Amino acid sequence: MTVSRRGFIGGVLGSALAAGTSEASSVEYFSGYPGRYGLLHDTTLCVGCRSCEVACKKVNDLPPFEGNAVGDQSVFASTRRSTDTTLTVVNRYREAEGNQPAVYRKQQCMHCNEPCCATVCPVHAFEKTPEGPVLYHPELCMGCRYCVTACPYYALAYEYDNPLTPRVMRCTMCYPRIKEGLKPGCAEACPMGAITFGRRDELLKVARERIRKNPERYVDHIFGENEFGGTSWLILSGIPFDQLGLDAGVTHESLPSIGTSYLSVVPLVITIYPGLLAGFYAFTKRKEQLAKQESQAAVAETLKRAGEETQQKLAAAAEKAKKDQDKAVERAVKEAVAKALSEQGKGDAS
Amino acid sequence: MSLSVPAAPSPTEPRGGLLTPFNLITGAILLGGAVILAIRFTRGLAATTNLSHTNPWGLWIGFDVMSGVALAAGGFVTSTAVYLFGMKEYKPVVRPAILTGFLGYFLVVLGLLADLGRPWRLPYPFIRQAGPTSPLFEVALCVALYLTVLFVESTPAVLEWLGWKRARRLVGSMTIALTILGLLLSTMHQSTLGAMFMITPTKLHPLWYSAHLPVQFFVSAVAAGISMVIVEGMFSHRAFHHQVEISQDHFLRINLGLAKGASVVLATYLAIKAVGLTLEDKWQLLGTGWGLWYLVELVGFVLLPCMLFTVAYRESRLPLARVAAVITVIGVVLNRFNVSFIAFNWKVPADQRYVPSWMEVWVTVAFITFAVVAFRWIANRMPIMYEHPDWKGSH
Fold first, then answer.
1. What DSSP element (H or E) covers A135?
2. Cα A198 from Cα A188, distance rounded (Å)
3. How many CB atoms are located within 10 Å of the residue B11 CB?
4. Domain residues of chain B, as ranges?
5. Quick check: B57 contacting A, CB < 8 Å?
6. Which of residues 314-343 of A touch B (CB under 8 A)?
């Protein structure tokens, strides 16, 4: 599992669960397939003859350059990059000055130890082989080009002019030739010995030895040993690497480990949200219900109080009415008595 | 009950026949888009786009996918507010927002189909081989599921229109579950769209690159979603005024409430950005040219609308809230553009930078036009802007 120690276990949930266990149980560190191949590019030996470019086209059956590219230096006027028909290019990064030779660097896919193209591919169309090369499977590719976006080396190209079957195009480290026991085309073609093919760990030793023997010739650094988790291509240089167009801001942490750590949060969202949100919903419902109950209770209380008051009023009114009635009767009796008495008085007088 | 319905909208009679100015203009745009897409699928992306090996993602990803998903966030924001948080006064905007969301996501898929090298392989992550380590795999899965959720959430209007009561009741009973699922999926893919760029620390300018990209994308999407509801209301409230049955006052209160919400979300977003700059020690980068551009985005399109929303709410000024909403929408699109192709590849020499071709712009405009036409067609026929008399007050 060179590709990504964290991922590639299968299933978003599966990888998240496994991430926990693997980190808990494994003190072991997997540094990549043992004995895998690599290429050492010693830029101090490169003279910019472009033999590698020509050889690359030939072994990959790509349309050849017009005219004789070997020795044609006119292309160095601008900085080029690998394309869908030219999988590797040589650029000149410093002009010759006095007895200081010009500096060239060959650009192509670096075949990362932990390739981010493989990590970001939604169909997993890339594969880090035990031999070292990163392979691409066009039969799976849907053409989202996330790999092209993600590659920090600008090494991936796409067949934009192919309307129906476009592919991602990049150096394959001549995987078929390696399987046959041959060297990659560029390494075989280089007349200066600037490209050495071999086992990556052996190449690291070779590179260190060269730096040790000629400390004045080299910057004491092997680009690709640790950059972004390490690459199959290793580069030696006599000038600082950022002047070679190799990003100065690189880290030793692999891009997949930086770029996909967030994905471990995703299963948490899936597991926490339903309960949390159902809780919110229940909370809202309950609040509504409580408010309803409270208002109902308040209404009932009001009604009850109103009922009691009414009854009291009614009773009072009834009493008052009774009193009024009594008074009226009393008054009527008095009046009647008075009337009778007065009538009696009249009769007596006449 | 149905007697109380004001001016029940009839399936719209085509006003003035087929050759209305609206139809002519939209027809021309759509036809042009179809021609360009025909060229794209016969002569390739190279013939139609300015994409290159160095700039593999352009307008169709930056706008149609990255911005489209953010602008379609209104659906999950409003349905969550109404159904989960019980903010029932916002119910009238849920249906238009969900329809906008559904059409928005539909556009995302259309844009993706135009942009993918082999679009017919779109289901490959699910049927051929999964790449679960890819943020894009998660986005694809979530968008596929969420598009389905939005589709189901949109069906009540269709079922009411068709009069299929039993199916309508069934969908209605799933409202809470669908709302929860929608919020869950939206949280995941809105943020993961930002996470997609976390693997490019050397290519995306450090002011935009952040460990908090996922959270920043999610929060800004909520602001975009709320603002889109206001913007959408600005057009549809007038266009479908004969259907709208809520009072002018209720409509105003909804919009001012949305303005208040948007101002809080934008303030939160600003705070998150400030926290990011502090934690990652990037304040000094504001003094550079890119810093100036960053400030344009953050002050002009986040702080400014945040303040405008606040004033609009306090002073009950609907037009001001609408201005703020439009600025916010533009600001979120600008942010997605910055992340996906402006501040992306910032070290690449100027002559190799990406600028969209007119054909890319045309196709994007055609897709937006398609969504507007579809919205109009549906809202003219189905109960989107009003509640169907038989289903008043139900989920």
1. strand A134-136
2. 12
3. 8
4. 33-388
5. yes
6. none
Contact A150 B124 (CB under 8 A): no
Print pLDDT tens along chain A (350 aa): 344 444 443 444 444 444 444 444 555 677 788 889 999 999 999 999 999 999 999 999 999 998 888 888 889 999 999 999 999 999 999 999 988 899 999 999 999 999 999 999 999 999 999 999 999 999 999 999 999 999 999 999 999 999 999 999 999 999 999 999 999 999 999 999 999 999 999 999 999 999 999 999 999 999 999 999 999 999 999 999 999 989 767 888 888 888 888 888 888 888 998 899 888 888 888 988 999 999 999 999 999 999 999 999 999 999 999 999 999 999 999 998 888 888 887 766 65
Burial group, residue B236, by CB count within 10 angstroms (0-12, 13-18, 19+): buried
Inter-residue long-range contacts of B371-376, CB under 8 Å, 24+ positions, other chains counted? B371/B103, B371/B104, B371/B106, B371/B107, B372/B26, B373/B26, B373/B30, B374/B103, B374/B106, B375/B99, B375/B100, B375/B103, B375/B236, B376/B239
Task: Enumerate residues 195 to 214 of chain A having a beta carbon within 8 A of any beta carbon in chain B.
Answer: none
With CB atoms and an 8 Å threshold, state whether A152 touches B200. Answer: yes
Task: Extract the tokens encoding B314.
Answer: 């306090």
- Asked if B200's CB is within 8 angstroms of A150's CB, the reply is yes
**Closest alpha carbon to B362 in B29, B49, B39, B45:** B29
Residue A202 CA from chain centroid, whole number: 35
B235 vs B100: CA distance, rounded Å = 12
Q: State ipTM.
A: 0.90
Tell me the β-bridge partners of A199. Answer: A37
Q: Chain B partners of A261 at a C-beta cutoff of 8 Å?
A: 198
* Out of B83, B187, B196, closest to residue A269 by CB: B187
Token readout for B127 is 């049927």
Nearest by CB: B188 against A145, A157, A266: A266
Task: For residue A152, give the DSSP letter.
Answer: T
Task: Tell me the fold of B33-388.
Answer: Formate dehydrogenase/DMSO reductase fold (1.20.1630)
How many Cα atoms occupy the beta-carbon half-sphere of B7 within 13 Å?
10
DSSP, res A99: T
Whole-angstrom distance, CA of residue B163 vs CA of residue A142: 41
Min distance A214 CA to chain B CA atoms (Å): 32
Q: Is B178 on the interface with A (CB under 8 A)?
A: no
Q: Which of A127, A139, A266, A283 to mutate to test the interface with B (most CBs of B within 10 A)?
A: A266
Neighbours of B272 (CB within 10 A): 17
Do you know the residue count of chain A?
350
Nearest neighbour of A262 by CB, restricted to B40, B184, B195: B195
Task: Enumerate the residues of chain A whose CB falls inside 8 A of the CB of residue B82.
Answer: none
Q: Which two tokens stand for residue B195?
A: 């996470």
Q: Are residues B44 and A166, on separate chains, in Cβ contact within 8 Å? A: yes
Chain B touched by A129 (CB under 8 Å): no
Measured between CB atoms, does B297 come within 8 Å of chain A? no
